[in-house]
Amino acid sequence: MEIRLVDLRSATRSELNAFFSRAAVPDHAVRAAASNIVSSVRFGGDAAVLDAAERYGGGRKDGSIRVPDEELRAALDSLDPNVSAALETAASNVRACHLPQRPTDSQVQVGPGISIRRVWTPLRRVGVYVPGGGAAYPSSLLMGVIPARIAGVGEVVVASPADQGGRHPQAVLAAAAMLEVDEFYSIGGAQAIGALAYGTQTVAAVDKVVGPGSVWVTAAKLAIYGECAVDLPAGPSEALVIADSTADPVVVAADVLCQAEHGEDSPVVLVTTAPAVLGRVLDSIEKQLSRLERAQILRTALSKHGAIVLAPDIDAAVEFANRFAPEHCSVHTADAPSVAERIVAAGSVFVGHWSPESAGDYASGANHILPTGGLAKAHGPLGVEDFGSWRQIQELTEQGLASLRGTIATLAATEGLTAHRNAVEIRFGDGT
To answer: Would you call 327 a catalytic residue per the annotation?
Structure first.
């Protein structure tokens, strides 16, 4: 297996741009096709959803769209006790991590008679998309639903595609029952996003759609943006690992492989200051691949989208990581905590030998719905604050407005907006 090798000391600008120019946004053809699906659902309702399911999959064999609550409950009641306990532990940790994120209102007295409040209000109805079809992701259901519940969202609904047989993984249905989601819809891909955004005869529209998904889900999110809120466009899962001469090659190899198994298009980059450890890392990757179920997917991801970057020192490694802005960043260095503090552009940072990326994916409590494609430069993980909105409430007394009267008049005149000035002056009997 060949992995691209880049030395920062000799890399050209075009070589580096190949790393940094990746994007979470799908190409034009996919966006256009997804937009057409969304539009058909918007105007065709349930019939369009079912037609899309026939064409692209994700629906139930009986043609129903909503999964009955009794089916969710039955899945939970019959779930393997070990899986149930694992879901409970993960859910408990997600709650513990997200509870402190509850926003608090604030008020400031700008001056005598000038009061400004900032008030946070939960959304009324949210749709959580949970990937499925060929795999089971109950963890993504936890990551989307629990913060919404903590935020106080009135109704939390889930949409997730069924497999080719029209069935959903038991663990996903059980997780939905465990968290008492209000509704569970058997819809996948772009048609699911369209149904959540615009509503159908069966699905009531939501205020916001969150959750990871395929390139079609991402393209559909972009199509509805502006009419329905979304979290972020989500590209392929990605990881960047920083390692120096003190790193354990076996653990580094495991972290390189961890996120790459999500798909053949998952970028994974190892940035190291120690060329001497590369051979051992690559040997360990080969050994581990021989024991992993998704070995072929991993090999394709590493050969097409993987890279090894040689950095002259830790400063250069950190600079590269921040420019790359990965979804996941693992730090395996002599002073991992201090290096991790310098990573300012990453969705989630994993510090040291005992902090695997999979801990964050499943059980540590940190959210695993993260920015990809370089969006971590300006965005962070999904959190409680994503499930509400802020508003400003301003209250002025006569004294307060009088103190601002001249300032408002001057600025209104400067901008040529006399109605603005008049709205103040008329209150004092001097307006038009």
So the answer is: yes
Domain hosting residue 332, numbered range: 4-24+236-365
Of 230, 255, 272, the domain-final residue: 230
Asked if residue 332 and residue 242 are part of one domain, the reply reads: yes
Q: Which of 98, 168, 328, 332 is catalytic?
A: 328
**Overall average pLDDT of the 263-273 stretch:** 93
- The tokens of 317 are what? 């490694």
pTM over 0.90: yes
Confidence of residue 431 (pLDDT cuts 50, 70, 90): low
Q: How many alpha carbons lie under 13 Å from residue 46 in its C-beta half-sphere?
A: 9
Q: Is 392 contained in some domain? A: no
Give the three-state DSSP class for 263: coil
Structural domains of the chain, count: 3
86 and 216, same domain (yes or no)? yes
Model pLDDT, residue 198: 98
Domain final residue pick, 342, 365, 388: 365
- 133 with 78, same domain: the answer is yes
Non-local (6+) Cβ contacts of 324 within 8 A are: 19, 20, 240, 269, 345, 374
Q: pLDDT tens digits, residue range 334-354?
A: 999 999 999 999 999 999 999
- Which of 156, 117, 106 minimizes the C-alpha distance to 387? 156
Q: Which of 183, 264, 327, 357 is catalytic?
A: 327
Q: pLDDT for 211-258, tens place per residue?
A: 999 899 999 999 999 999 999 888 889 999 999 999 999 999 999 999
